[in-house]
Amino acid sequence: MRIQNKIALIFTALSAGIILALSIFVYFFASESISSGFFHRLEVRSDIVGHAGLQENKSLTSIYYDIKERHLGSLPYEKHRILPDPTDEATRKRLALPSSFFEAPQGDIPARFFNHDTSYVVLRIARDKRKIMVVSSALDTYGMQEMTNLKNLLIIGFIIAMVFVFTLGKLFSNEIFKPIRRIIRNVKGINAHNLHQRLVVEPTDDDVEALSRTFNDMLDRLEVTFEMQNNFVSNASHEFRTPLTVVSGEAELGMTMPGLPEGAKESFLNIYKEVEKLEHLTTSMLSLAQTGFDGKKENWEEVRIDELILSVKEAADRIMPDNHVTIDFDQLPDDESKLVVLGNLALLKAAFSNIVLNSCKYSDNKPVRVRISADAKYVIVEVADQGIGIPDREIGQIFVPFFRASNTARYKGYGIGLPLTHNIIRMHQGKVEVHSRVEEGTQFITFLPFKYSVFS
């Protein structure tokens, strides 16, 4: 997940937590307020009914009830029960209320109880040594409707708020990450071909400015390192080959000298063979090094992969005439532009030649199949053999220079071909996948972006 989206989600989650906590607080505060108000209204009516019940003069009793009805009105499902003897257990059981409820009221302080949406009030009233207990109950339908409306309002408000918060969070994070995205775009445009390019540093005196300066410092060091490597490769190419050529020539001349003892001839022959190996190793190492720097001297052009593979097959026929390499064209894309890559013909030929020749060598010239196909972005070249395979624990190291698998001791090699191939493919913005099983074979799958996908 992109950091920008993650920040928006975290911002939304934090806001949701705050708004939810506030909504719950408002809901319970309103519930307590409405419930307390309803209990108070029920207590007032209970008090009037209680005092009316203590009046011996029935005309005064009617006045109490008239005042109640005229000024207070009746509550929904309002009921009042006057208990002359609060200690009467039969009456208590008939009301189906807990015993503690009748013991709660002290003096003029009523007891409140809520059960199954019904509010109960118990009030003790005493006058002239007469004591009664009034049990009043009612249903707060208006209050429950108010709470339902409040709950729906809070839920709808919460959802709307989340939509706004997430939208604003996206806009906020988008604005915050604009400089980062600009840096990413600029860094993506910097490669081995234009290491001189630098990021634009704006004097904002913040972390973005520090990040840009850090990138520029790193690019300065990389450019110096690449230039040093470039100079080394250019000079070493001449400095290494010249003395090796001289030694090789002298050894060859020494072998032709008349009257030379057999021991000396054998020594010259060994020198000649070892110098030849050293020349091959030096050339391979220089090629490997050359794939690691800017490539400005390389000739980049349009290369058709099918034609390239055919030339690789021709080269393999010359080097190993008894090979069994076959090319499968059945899955070639209908769109020929998907076969064209932008790259260096010589390097690409060297890369695929290394793979094909390795497949022939390590399979003892068993059949090797090369298949060309394409997907939405890459032209794909699969090279499958029936050779000795690569141990699972060693597959991750085959592109390390000079590494050779543990089961390759009887085959001549230096461990440079595959690292060279890997570097060349990476230079062309491609990738290589390897699938292998010991004693069953190895499959190299190379992905190279075709020309128009590079610029899309």
UniProtKB/TrEMBL annotation:
GO molecular function: kinase activity
Enzyme class, broadest EC rank: transferase
ATP-binding in keyword set: yes
Domain HAMP: 174-227
Annotated ranges, domain Histidine kinase: 235-452
Record Gene3D superfamilies: 1.10.287.130, 6.10.340.10, Histidine kinase-like ATPase, C-terminal domain
Catalytic reaction equation(s): ATP + protein L-histidine = ADP + protein N-phospho-L-histidine
Subcellular localization(s) per the UniProt record: Cell membrane
Membrane topology qualifier: Multi-pass membrane protein
InterPro entries the UniProt entry points to: HAMP_dom, HATPase_C_sf, HATPase_dom, His_kinase_dom, HisK_dim/P_dom, HisK_dim/P_sf, HssS/ArlS-like, Sig_transdc_His_kin-like_C
Its EC number(s): 2.7.13.3
Pfam families documented for this protein: HAMP (PF00672), HATPase_c (PF02518), HisKA (PF00512)
Membrane-spanning parts: 7-30, 153-172
Top-level taxon in the UniProt lineage: Bacteria
Keywords, comma-separated and alphabetical: ATP-binding, Cell membrane, Kinase, Membrane, Nucleotide-binding, Phosphoprotein, Transferase, Transmembrane, Transmembrane helix, Two-component regulatory system
Name by which UniProt lists this protein: histidine kinase
Organism phylogeny: Bacteria, Pseudomonadati, Bacteroidota, Cytophagia, Cytophagales
